[in-house]
């Protein structure tokens, strides 16, 4: 059983769903919101435990809810369409006036000008803003009443000063020059028809497509694997991403991130082999190569399990997806795309029982860019037509698998609207945020958001469309089993999943995003729907320490399927089965 130290980083969902009495924790400063997550101190843990024990004693017939793992408090489990519509209207109104009075922007190094852009004299504020829009790298303009115009980069800081107005390159979010032009070179990999479909011209061309039915011959057992949050940093060009010393030596290299009281900077030092405090619970044999350790365990199990498909719940490449801008024509594979897929996917996941097995894949928030929307996520869709096993024909799609005795339908959904907010909100966790998207960011060349102001609506429009789509598919489904596979963790959009489970027969929810392995068996929050998180694929530091016994920090899931049940097994990086549950099929509600 996992010790208290191992459980501590995993308990933030409890904090979100059942806050302790304010008077009991008023003087407890151990609950920190650093890096956008909140965790519980040992004292708070005891308070929750005591409260649950008292509740169970008072109502003996009620089964206590199991501890729920690691749903960040910063992410609401519900956002109604009315709220989304109101936020869209508010953003539209804000876009009409983005100019700030009595504030100017200055580079962090206190320089008075951005490289290549000296202070000039312009005839009007509009002329100064237009100059910013035309200047590569300009993130802000500042205009003084005497005509002075100063351009600064996106990393500049705001300073109070009278007689000045400032703002972004464009109040519409549409002007300005993107950091990188669309790739115009040849495809570096052969792209051809697949499943009878030509490569798409836009990212949404095949949204909602039913991928050709898989038919599996008779076997003694039928298996699927599930994995997520696995794509580590690549240290070599093209497209290298180096976070700490030693990160230039090829890869994969685990992305360093906070763990409990250990912040990200300190974890970077740990990864680099520098002095590392005990509070990081760092394991030098596991954390720096977590993806490889999980892949080794997966490859060891594959020859006996012989999975028919691998369910991939996203965050396929850290830290910001395929490390080139969106916009490469979708009948081409960019050199960066080919390099990252080769180094982080193809050369990691191979061998008996894995070769040729389809990876049914969805996008995670880091695949869009993490806190921006314009990285090469369209190339992950395009790679479907350059691979014999990567399957991501659109942002959402369906796969049916027919076994001799039963059938399964999997609905692959994009839930990244959960990290898509109006452009001024939550800059550390906002795909559509103004702070980190470069001036002129646009994915319109391949059918994505046309600019910053379009991003929030675009992401939520995808969600609206796929909600309607999956409800229609479930209503008509003749399969014995129905699963939803998506990135965001158990607890998001709970009311909708409860409806799918109770009324439309959804049997299982497969998720990631939280960087650990956890099972929510017949979870009360989802009205009895079983959900699991497989976000411990090793691409990023787990919230959970790996050195504890039966660690759930890093791993994958092995699903054993039959007509009557699905057995879930959480397998850690050591190959140990550290969690199990059994799922039974549910029927649609009678009309």
Which properties best describe this structure?
single chain; 7-stranded mixed beta sheet; 13 helices; 19% strand; disordered N terminus
Tell me about this structure.
With 591 residues, this protein is α/β, with parallel strands linked by helices. It has helices at 4-7, 12-17, 22-25, 42-58, 81-95, 125-134, 264-271, 290-305, 335-346, 365-368, 377-382, 452-476, 494-504, and strands at residues 100-106, 120-121, 138-144, 148-153, 157-167, 209-215, 222-227, 307-312, 359-361, 390-391, 397-402, 407-412, 481-485, 508-511, 517-523, 529-534, 555-561, 566-572, 577-583. Helix 5 (81-95) runs antiparallel to helix 12. The protein is globular.
Helix and strand arrangement:
Layout: H1 4-7, H2 12-17, H3 22-25, H4 42-58, H5 81-95, E1 100-106, E2 120-121, H6 125-134, E3 138-144, E4 148-153, E5 157-167, E6 209-215, E7 222-227, H7 264-271, H8 290-305, E8 307-312, H9 335-346, E9 359-361, H10 365-368, H11 377-382, E10 390-391, E11 397-402, E12 407-412, H12 452-476, E13 481-485, H13 494-504, E14 508-511, E15 517-523, E16 529-534, E17 555-561, E18 566-572, E19 577-583
